[in-house]
Amino acid sequence: MDATTDKDPLVQEQIYNALCYLGESEPEEILNSCDEYLRQHDKLAYPHRVIILKAMETVVKNNIALLDKSTAKEVIRDWQQAASNVLVAVGQRFINKVMEEVLTKFQPGILPHYFVVQTFANLSVSNGE
C-alpha cells in the first residue's frame, strides 16, 4: 500500500485495482489490512488516503453479503471517520464547496447521520477565526 504515495496516476490506479482484486477473494483480510494501514499512517496525504478508502468502499459494496456483521460495522465506522477527516482537510482550502456538499445532507424533519454532524463541527473548528 505504500505505493499509493507514488505520484504516477497509473501506479495509483494499479494499487486500487490490486486491492479490489484481492478483496474479491479475501474481503475481510483486505478491509482489515487497509484499516490497519490507515491507522498506522495517520499522516498519509489525503489524495493517497482516498485511494485506499475508495478501494475499501468497492470491496464492501462488492462483498457486503459475505462480510461478518462485526467486521462490516467496524469497517463502516472507521471508513466514515476517515471520509469525514478527508472532507475537513479539503475544507481548509475549499470551505465553500465542502460546506455546500455537507449541508445537502441536512434534510428537514430527518435527523442527520452522526458523521455528518461531526464533519460539520470539525469543519467549523478547523476554519474558525
The total domain count is: 1
Helix content: over 70%
- List low-pLDDT spans: none
State the end-to-end CA separation: 37 Å
β-strand percent reads: under 5%
* SSE arrangement, N to C: HHHHHH
Mean pLDDT across the residues is 85
Oligomerization category of the chains in this entry: single chain
Number of strands: 0
Molecular shape: globular
Q: Count up the helices.
A: 6
Structural class, judged by helices and strands?
Answer: mainly alpha
The gyration radius over C-alpha positions equals: 16 Å
Largest sheet: none
Pfam families: HEAT_MROH2B_1st (PF23221)
Domain MROH2B-like N-terminal HEAT-repeats: 19-127
InterPro entries: Maestro_heat-like_prot, MROH2B-like_N_HEAT
Protein name: MROH1 protein
Would you kindly provide a brief summary of this structure?
By secondary structure, the protein is an all-alpha fold.
Could you explain the architecture of this structure?
One of its GO terms (cellular component) is cytoplasm. It holds the Pfam family HEAT_MROH2B_1st. This is MROH1 protein. The structure is a single chain. The protein has six helices and no strands. The chain is globular, with a radius of gyration of 16 Å. It is an all-alpha fold and 129 residues long. It is 73% helix and 0% strand. The chain has one domain.
